[in-house]
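Dear colleague,

Thank you for sharing your sequence with our group. We've completed the structure prediction you requested, and as agreed, I am returning the results in plain text so they can be pasted directly into your records. Please verify that the sequence below matches your submission; if there's any discrepancy, let me know and we will rerun it promptly.
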Amino acid sequence: MSDRTLVTIEARTGSSRLPAKVLADLHGRPMLERLIERVSKASVVNGIVLATTTAPEDDVLEALAARLGIGCHRGSVEDVLGRVLGAAQAFGAEHLVALTGDNPLVDPELINDVVAFYRQGRFDYVTTTHMHHSRKWQAERTFPVGVSVQTFSARVLAEASANTTDPVDREHVSFYIYNHPERYRLGAFAAEGKYAAWRKPELRLTVDTPEDLALMRAIFGVLYPRNASFSTGEAIRLVDGDPALKGMNAHVRQRIASEQKAAHA
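Please find the predicted structure tokens below.
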């Protein structure tokens, strides 16, 4: 396998539950900047590309990418698959680590290990959490929601793009891939071994609601001053050991792509 691996970060300012969440203040910087700060420490990737939209309100995200010295590709609001594929093609990626801007706790060491697992197993697709969106892939999600790293080749993504026009497939970059286990070699990266203490699938470490944002601010408020490069494992221990923190967003229900698919059927 070639080592030309890029991180793509899907982000836009439009959001039905928490508008402009990727620009929300997180310990003195936009949340998206905090994510980029963490991802930039992953040694296996050759660059970071922001995959945002052509909507005028996302000009601010292109400006943020320029300020931080990362790539930016703009595409469709609804066709996220096409947008990420366009980013891969524009920046010459052969393999992608696909992230979303609402998961600011992604860990660079986890990225390194997921990519290593993907390469060693010669998988078409590997993920830590996305299998819970599939009714066809019977793999267990073991990491918290939001500790989400997925990796696959640009070739597989291009094939998926050519094979589907379904709006739900197009809205969720890898939905088509992990819903065709008969076609693709899928790998579930589990919270075990060195990540055994991260096996807390009941925790919610993504930002989709005001309660999620409040929890994320609490986490960064405690851990960032101690160590700007704090691990996701430290955040998991902090939340899991504090009932008040754990309860802040425990009632929030995660949106599941397969349910959207059923609703469109």
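Summary note from our side: The domain at 5-264 is CATH 3.90.550.10 (Spore Coat Polysaccharide Biosynthesis Protein SpsA; Chain A).

Kind regards,
the structure core
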